[in-house]
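Subject: mismatched residue count in predicted assembly?

I count 226 residues in my input, but I want to confirm that the predicted structure covers every chain. Input:
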Amino acid sequence: DGGITQSPKYLFRKEGQNVTLSCEQNLNHDAMYWYRQDPGQGLRLIYYSQIVNDFQKGDIAEGYSVSREKKESFPLTVTSAQKNPTAFYLCASSILSGAQYFGPGTRLLVL
Amino acid sequence: KQEVTQIPAALSVPEGENLVLNCSFTDSAIYNLQWFRQDPGKGLTSLLLIQSSQREQTSGRLNASLDKSSGRSTLYIAASQPGDSATYLCAVFHHLNTNAGKSTFGDGTTLTVKP
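Triage response: the counts match. Full output below for your records.
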């Protein structure tokens, strides 16, 4: 069953804590993306990767970090430097410059 | 910097009506444009992808057009149904020669189809 999975569905972060959001795809896509969505708004690009072991900053990379050690996986870490992390985080994948396909999202809340 | 605008922000129509959603972008140097549907609290579902060399794409009751020179795309929904109620987002993907892989999304149009 091909697709993109994100976990967990909900994540709670305490003050000063780093948390990691998981994104896995079995579509054999080269490119993967992380977006943040705030209520009533569109998506903003955090990081993207077009190939293993390489990634680029998007428009709002500050306070976030990523790694791309495997083609199938693109985890996102929300660091303590991100002062307003409460949002809906969406991961996507695509063939290079092809249609993007999205996972179900992770909702991050701050305790 | 690429900016994507979707008008209107919200739209309410009676069931059976044909409707058009609009998307405009400021930089015509795009590689492709994609329309998505998002249900509340869910991820995005891809509806249609238009390559920059294409003028339109069709899937069932949906038809998307692209006019790069004027920086516009429209999504036409025929014979709307209550199940079409959702937020519709458009996204432009930047040209391969510059910022390849980057995308810019509009804020979406929230559609309500009343039975």
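The first strand of chain B starts at residue 4 and ends at 7. Marking this ticket as 'not a bug'.
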